[in-house]
Amino acid sequence: MNNNPHLADRKFIIGGFFILIAVVYICRLFYMQNIDGQYKLKATYNALSKQTEFPPRGVIYDRNGKPLVTDQPSYDLMVTPKLAKGCDTVALCEVLQITRQEFFKRMKKACQAPNSPRKQSIFEKQMSAETYAKLQEKQYRFIGFYVQSRSVRKYPRPSAAHLLGYVNEVSKEKADKDPYYNDGDYIGISGIEKSYEEVLRGVKGTRFIVKDVHNKEIGRYMDGKLDTIAIPGKPLYCTIDADLQQYVETLLKGKKGALVAIEPSTGEILCMVSTPGYDPNLLVGGKERSRNFARLSLDTTLPLFNRALQAMYPPGSTFKLIDALIAQDDGVINRESSFACAPGYPPMGGHPKCHKRHSGNLVENIAQSCNSYFSYVFARICENNKYPKFVDGYTHWRNQVMTFGPNTSLGTDLPFDKPGNVPSVKYYNKVFGENRWYANTIVSLGIGQAELSLVPLQMANIMAIIANRGYYIVPHCVKGVGQEKYLDKKFKEKHFVGVQNQVAYTNVIDGMQRCFDAGTGYPERIPGVIACGKTGTAENPHGNSHAVFFAFAPRDNPKIAVACLIENAGWGGVWAAPAVSLMIEKYLTGKVTRLKEEERYKAVDLINRKNLLSNESH
Known about the structure:
Radius of gyration: 33 Å
CATH class of the domain at 242-292 and 304-603: Alpha Beta
Number of helices: 22
Helix content: 25-40%
Largest sheet: 6 strands, mixed
Shape: elongated
């Protein structure tokens, strides 16, 4: 017998170590079986159903608190193919009104990547309430299937489709990149729904449902202790006036083009219409949505195309306002400057042409929209003696123009807006050759033609700049997010343009007021409102000219700035000015007094050439 005391001590240490390990294991097993329900959950998963709880998307309101987009309940039938053995296939096909071939086709898809036999996937999406009720009656016969509720969008008014956008299933690429989304989830695809997706979507929750052997739900697992609550999306408060938006859409029915109105002092978009449009409710639902989307996509009038943000047009004579501001700021013209009209631009043999012979000073030529006058103005800006080379003068003109928005992204809160185009020196060197082009070569730029192009949102922003006498706030269509009504600070900052000469703005605005008082916009003067406007007829190389009209009102402390373009219509004073004039009157006074004109304009169908007006002016 070994009586070594050191060995005796070692025996107790080793024994104590094993006892300690045993105690740790016993405690861990007790915790796993009696305290931590996750392990028990995994062990009994074949009796449980893990279901995603989808939050309702945030409601979208107009500037006056009227709902533009709400939610309504919808139901998806989910399947886990591995658990679907013993399902009553015949009964399920009967309820869903599909064939057995379609059933097996869907089951095959549910087993293929990115799905899996052990993974839940959508078998039938956005079922009607009637179909859902029938399923619930026979749920015990559909082993491996369950109904998942979610909300889909509902539009109380059939308007503002392009601005609001729509929601659709997330793409595989997006689902792979963003862990929030799974196959079959919904995401904002365009408009506000896309721009504000992260705040509108909310946060998904999870529920663990206990089922019996007949596939019937018998309650929440552990009384819901492991569940997570879905958090609804935040509400959005729009800058849009829903009544004004809907009114303008009725005015522009039967016409192709766009109208954008902005509150100059805030940059808030009051309405944004792209026509032809569509009822946003058409892009809600399962099978119906797919059919409607296909039909709208094939429509030759392009109702899905947002002309207000994506169509780039020559601005025509409305662009003369920017030239007038730059030229005065450069000191190459003043209020009393006058130039000869042939009718047309004499140095180029009467091209660009004028529709009649004009005379007078700057104010009068803005009111009468003389092409010859503003061709001279453009040439004087570019050929200013202060620049050693013509291209330096042109570059100066181009840089000044771009401070007003053209050729740049304004940074609005709507997606897919295009920047327009102001051609560069590099472009013209490529077209004509270096040192082989001059002001008269590209003089059409001075009257808003040639390669110059803008989108209607930029056109409306130019009006806001002139109304503000030299600055703008980035146009935006949401004025608050969530109950706290948070707004990005960039939508509060003033952006000053390259011309800050207040005398220049006064002269231009005098000319715009005279456009309504005694010029090309005279037929559309607004009773009781001092408004300022500018007509334009933009030549179109692909067909008939576009009708354009810019305006803001009232002259002092302006409340609204508008740009309207009607495609292939002709004279701006005839086809674009009435829409702008009528909507300004309705917005500022709350009613329209020129009811006969309103009725006549609404009846005009330029797409099908019906009920056309007879009188025309430039």
